[in-house]
């Protein structure tokens, strides 16, 4: 059974904005009795691998958290959530899974909310994959390949999952449709909440230093070409 722990990451040693504090309070409201654990520079080794160390040195906190969330799930188990995820109901029923994920659209598997028992083999392999990567590429630019892309490709390779947005049982990983964890469409700004919805990912995208309309245009173009930006 998945432990009653919610993990989140906060790197960069900056004060949390009011919206992040509101989300954490929301988790406490819907999941009373859960341990809510923050991972930051004080309790996570940013020198775990070269990828993580380089991402931290260049202040790309979201990519540091890509590694830290996997480390937390592998070593402690529980539920990882991004700080722009709002719960609308308790997570208790999901904890009976060995591991669970949810679609983001119909082509990609999201990483904004992940649940797993400790030492789950799939997440161990994902974590190990960062040991052989560099964040700074040979041309001196950051590798901004998203963890969504990495995880989705790994699921295709290991389990051959279908890119159709449907409920799927992939070995001991349960994959839920988009309306469970990602009912908000960041392209058209519409919320498609259903009776199945557990959470809403609001896509704050704080790691992108561009104006809102450029973000939306870029996301739309990437959807047309079958890609996804972080």
Automatic annotation (TrEMBL):
MF term (GO), any: mannosyltransferase activity
Top-level taxon: Bacteria
Entry-linked InterPro entries: Glycosyltransferase_domain (IPR051706), GlycoTrfase_DXD_sugar-bd_CS (IPR007577), Nucleotide-diphossugar_trans (IPR029044)
Protein known as: Alpha 1,4-glycosyltransferase domain-containing protein
GO biological process: one example: mannosyl-inositol phosphorylceramide biosynthetic process
Keyword vocabulary terms for this entry: Transferase
Single GO cellular component term: membrane
SUPFAM superfamilies xrefs: Nucleotide-diphospho-sugar transferases
């Amino acid at each position: 059974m998945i432990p009653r722990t919610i993990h989140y990451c906060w790197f960069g040693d900056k004060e949390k904005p009011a919206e992040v504090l509101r989300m954490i309070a929301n988790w406490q409201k819907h999941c009373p009795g859960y341990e809510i654990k923050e991972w930051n520079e004080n309790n996570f080794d940013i020198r775990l691998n070269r990828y993580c160390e380089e991402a931290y040195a260049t202040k790309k906190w979201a990519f540091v958290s890509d590694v830290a969330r996997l480390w937390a799930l592998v070593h402690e188990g529980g539920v990882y959530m991004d700080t722009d995820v709002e719960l609308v109901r308790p997570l208790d029923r999901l904890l009976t899974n060995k591991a669970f994920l949810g679609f983001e659209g119909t082509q990609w598997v999201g990483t904004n909310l992940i649940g797993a028992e400790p030492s789950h083999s799939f997440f161990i392999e994902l974590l190990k994959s960062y040991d052989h990567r560099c964040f700074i590429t040979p041309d001196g630019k950051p590798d901004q390949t998203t963890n969504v892309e990495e995880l989705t490709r790994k699921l295709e390779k290991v389990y051959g999952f279908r890119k159709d947005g449907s409920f799927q049982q992939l070995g001991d990983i349960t994959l839920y449709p988009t309306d469970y964890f990602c009912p908000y469409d960041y392209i058209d700004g519409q919320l498609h909440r259903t009776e199945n919805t557990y959470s809403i990912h609001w896509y704050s995208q704080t790691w992108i230093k561009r104006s809102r309309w450029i973000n939306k245009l870029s996301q739309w173009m990437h959807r047309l070409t079958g890609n996804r930006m972080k």
